[in-house]
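In response to reviewer comment 3 from the previous cycle, which asked for concrete evidence that the modeling workflow produces usable outputs, we include below a single protein chain processed end to end. The sequence was submitted unchanged, and the resulting structure tokens are shown without manual editing.
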Amino acid sequence: MSETILQAGILIFVAAGGTAVVFNREPLSQAMVVSFYGLLLGIMFFVFQAPDVGLSQIVVGAVALPLMILLVLARVKKQGRKSD
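The workflow returned the following structure tokens.
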């Protein structure tokens, strides 16, 4: 019974996190929200008893993807300065 409540709770948090990513329009803050969303997805996989997938999701979704987004934003900003 408590496992079902935990699963339902994490699904609600994942849905809210996905909604927050979609409605956030500022690229820098969106990268941070994507990182938090990746962490929520990793926790969800742990709750649903898939720890290997959860660890992979945390590495990719909470660390690698936001880092790549931040690097691209920095490069675009640098390119914009060169063209001025």
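Residues 2-83 form one domain. We consider this sufficient to address the reviewer's concern, and the full set will be provided in the supplementary archive.
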